[in-house]
Amino acid sequence: MYHSKLDSFPDNFLWGAASAAYQIEGGWNTDGKGLTIWDQYAQVPGNTFENTDGKVAVDHYHRYKEDVQLMKKMGLKAYRFSVSWARILPDGEGEVNEAGVQFYEDLIDELIENGIEPLLTLYHWDLPLALQEKYQGWEGRETVQAFKKYCEVLFKRFANKVTYWITMNEQNVFTALGYRWQAHPPKVSDVKRMYQANHLINLAHAEAVASFREFVPKGKIGPSFGYGATYPASSHPQDVLAAENGDTFNNRWWLDVYCKGRYPVFMMKQLKKMGIAPEVTEVDENLLQSVKPDFLGINYYHGGTVKTNQWEELTKEAKEKEYSSIDPYQMAAKEGEITIESGMFQTIENPHLEKTDWGWEIDPVGFRVALRKVYAEYDLPVLITENGLGALDTLTEDKKIHDDYRINYLKDHLIELQKTITDGVEVLGYCAWSFTDLLSWLNGYKKRYGFIYIDRDNQEERSLERIPKDSFYWYQKVIETNGDNLTNDL
């Protein structure tokens, strides 16, 4: 759709940036905080990139006031952060740690005092270690009830201070990385366990939404999902069918549950045939159907391109070969790889797209395609909870970071977002990933996303000085003009 003139961003648009507790806070054993699965996982040599961990991270726990002042200087309207469950309930389910609750209350108050809307994420991957050891983490139904208790502590405390709440961050990503690719804790490869754990996480999300309605009646709540559109490799009907399969496999399997309260029939039938479907009780079904989010949080980095499944295309010899690969946003079979989705589709590179330093496709138009599709399918407002570029930033001798590549990436995506709004999609806000540099789950401190450079690397904490990049001042201007400057030179 071509528009001769684009609509302006809404006057109340939430221009923001995002982070996650384990990736920025540090203070891993401070003020009564309990251990998380990541605190343990990162101590095992070889589990993380160059053995990096979040013990100090970028020390936001002790420097949050400094960070909020930088947010104010930038002009942020919103800041998305996550709460560390183990700061609130050190063993995941027992006594409340008041010092942990107070830290987040102080952060929230600091944000509000500086005119910044707090967007609170309840779970961003740092499960309390005690729950993993006692109940096998998300494989135990007891963890669902523990999550409900944890959420209610926050709901009761912050009901009058926080309007926007996010339940699970990228459930599709952390389940696959933890239970299939062995790249996150609990570091196992068992797809049956993965699908069962995923089902219990769906129940935890539903329990949280149900409790939210009771304790925060004026608030808004929704999940944050790593979403990307699925393209067919060609107009051949088999490729189009493969794309339909891929979209159900990578997107609808989660979004249909969040928004419609039921699993897609196609996917459930395939999993049952393979004997790896989750056990879903009637009580479970009733719970899932009883809740619906107020919005959909969308994390967008890239989508995927697929062609017809290898069973109908490849030779017997090729079918018997096995390969391995990890793409956190496309849990998808590569060519020749024997996987649960091999009979549905296979993923290929898109020849029309450039890639980041880490091999992720750059697809701003896909951002618009994705948001159009998800809005049409689920009829819910969209909040962009993550979008950004990880890159190898260089600090100059005069302490500058000239990250034009990040500016260009964000600008291209924001222009497509403005087109999406002009198309008619209701978009509440946009949170760039990330506000400061932080610890990447898979790439340590080498992969930098932030508007603010943090003086540290994988081996040394250094000064942890905060140094605004060129992109900081660019985004400051975008916010100041409410995005009007984005298309000035088009």
From TrEMBL:
SUPFAM superfamilies: (Trans)glycosidases (SSF51445). The active site is at 386 (nucleophile). The keyword Hydrolase applies. Pfam families: Glyco_hydro_1 (PF00232). GO terms for biological process: carbohydrate catabolic process. One of its GO terms (molecular function) is beta-glucosidase activity. GO terms for cellular component: cytosol. PROSITE patterns: GLYCOSYL_HYDROL_F1_1 (PS00572), GLYCOSYL_HYDROL_F1_2 (PS00653). The keyword Mitochondrion does not apply. Keywords: Glycosidase, Hydrolase. It comes from the Bacteria. Transmembrane segments: none annotated. InterPro entries: GH, GH_1_N_CS, Glyco_hydro_1, Glyco_hydro_1_AS. Belongs to the glycosyl hydrolase 1 family. This is Beta-glucosidase.
